[in-house]
Design goal:
Elements lengths: L2 E11 L2 E4 H5 L6 H8 L3 E4 L5 H14 L10 E5 L10 H8 L7 E5 L5 H14 L6 E7 L19 E10 L4 E10 L3 E3 L6 E3 L1 H23 L8 E4 L4 H11 L6 E2 L2 H4 L6 H11 L8 E8 L1 E10 L3
């Protein structure tokens, strides 16, 4: 068994800040209602930057604060359900903009809000089998064009952004993951040809607050760990009520639970990547720490990973 090392990190967000007060002018809602129901204070919408633009910004920043040269990257994974094109992939666009050679595997992963955890698991497997030596893992979403700005159940929640990690194998580390799907295409849905995000909020809440603790217990058991052994829990930033309710079921102390939904909103497959990049930027995510990441979203997909940050 081996783990992962984080060599670099970067994040990006949309170019326009949208406050709750801005939304008050568009839809029947209020700042106090949004804060009470979701914990969100603001989010970023990307008016002039594409999904690829944000992903590139996060990737370049990850390379700049690492000892890695772009040419060392041999696998690019982009977790997104909002690519700019049906094809080619955002990952291919990143490889092209970084001027990488032909010998790079590039692919997108569409697992919605579970995407970054799936990406971590895939990256770890590729590193462990020596199929890759340096992985650029990006979560990037441009959700704002898919929102019905008259539907206050969705338009208040989502934001645009990207988070990136550069990963390598840690032969002395540990990594365990668990994932699954409930095969539901109605609770969270976005049509391809008439794209508008639709969501049954109460059903999402019930799914998340039950499945998140269950999945985390499973992955901790696989690793022989307990909640007390973990330094940080990083959940998909869906809704503050979901995060706090799921954490309460596991009796996770507040000081072990990283949250930034108040500043970004729900950025789907980008949220965990943004969290981890921000944590590294603040000096909170250090070598040797044990971390649990958990994602959940459309599908209904879910997944969790526990790992020690490699030296």
């Amino acid at each position: 068994m081996s783990g992962i090392r984080i060599l670099g990190h970067g994040l990006s967000q949309g170019d326009e800040v949208i406050s709750n007060f801005d939304l008050e002018k568009i839809v029947r809602t209020s700042d106090s209602w949004i804060r009470e129901k979701t914990g969100i204070e603001k989010r970023f919408f990307s008016k002039n930057k594409s999904n690829l633009d944000m992903a590139e910004e996060a990737a370049v920043r990850a390379i700049e604060n690492s000892n890695v040269k772009a040419k060392d990257i041999d696998l690019i994974l982009v977790c997104t359900f909002t690519p700019d094109y049906a094809t080619p992939s955002v990952a291919c666009g990143i490889g092209g903009r970084l001027n990488l050679g032909e010998g790079v595997m590039c692919l997108d992963i569409n697992a919605a809000c579970s995407g970054f955890v799936y990406g971590l698991s895939f990256a770890k497997s590729m590193l462990e089998t020596k199929s890759a030596k340096c992985v650029l893992l990006i979560g990037s979403e441009k959700i704002s064009p898919l929102l019905d700005m008259e539907d206050r159940g969705t338009c208040i929640l989502f934001g645009d952004g990207a988070g990136a990690l550069l990963l390598a194998e840690d032969s002395r580390g540990e990594f365990e993951s668990s994932a699954g799907v409930l095969y539901d295409d109605e609770v969270l849905f976005c049509d391809r040809f008439e794209p508008r995000v639709s969501m049954k909020g109460q059903e999402v809440y019930r799914f998340a607050v039950n499945k998140v603790p269950e999945t985390i217990r499973t992955v901790l058991e696989k690793s022989g760990s307990s909640v007390e052994d973990v330094d940080w829990f990083v959940f998909h930033q869906a809704n503050l009520r979901i995060i706090d309710s799921a954490a309460a079921k596991l009796k996770i102390p507040e000081n072990k639970l990283y949250k930034n939904i108040q500043m970004y909103g729900n950025t789907s497959g980008a949220s965990i990547g943004i969290c981890m990049a921000e944590m590294r930027e603040k000096g909170l995510l250090k070598n040797g720490m044990k971390v649990v990441c958990c994602g959940f979203g459309a599908g209904l997909t879910y997944g969790a990973a526990v790992f020690t940050v490699g030296e």
